[in-house]
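U., I forgot to send this yesterday:
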Amino acid sequence: MDREQLADLLRALARGEQTVDAALDRLRALPFEDLGFARLDHHRSLRNGFGEVVFGAGKTAEQIVAIADRLATAAGNVLVTRLDADAAAALGRAVPGFRYHDVARLAIRQVRPVEPIGTGPLFVLSAGTADLPVAEEAALSAEFLGARVERLYDVGVAGIHRLLAEHQRLWEAAVLVVVAGMEGALPSVVGGLVDRPVIGVPTSVGYGASFGGIAALLAMLNSCAAGVTIVNIDNGFGAAAAAVRILQRSS
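Result:
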């Protein structure tokens, strides 16, 4: 249940269109619902501004379906990240309304309109095409949460003229999520070009000495560009959530 749903319920109760017992039935699952293998946090939207998101990796298809079904019943809109194609197919058969995005490896069920965030846009940049799964996870997650997103892909430092050609556009952004693997240099470059918040996302893309993204992570953490902050390796959703909170506080 999100803020708008709760407000609608309280208004209906105040108008006499809803009985106290019926309202209590709807509120019974707050603040969480115990499925035995998972405790669903239906209260999260009221606390954090957006509801619980399902992390699909490490869960069975049956667990994902059960969790997503209960969240869909309670909130309508559901986001499932790190979802493989087989689990996505099972989810689509069991719970109507999901759309699977194979590049981003996530599924979205959006049956209720999302209130757009007034500020923006949020720019998502990727250094290379190999970084697109993480970049699209960030972009689609941010759109699901209400942000207006623009994408600038394949603008890495190996051909920095591609980024510089978009220099003026970068200044249109309210916040930038910058996704890069290999040596992870792109967030530092972007951070030196704009005065906007820059969130760097290291990816696990690279040859052996990249150590599965650790090299990019350490490079970003050691950025000399002021104001660049970093999330974990391949954490596109985490970057989107941070960027959306920045936008929410500035709107």
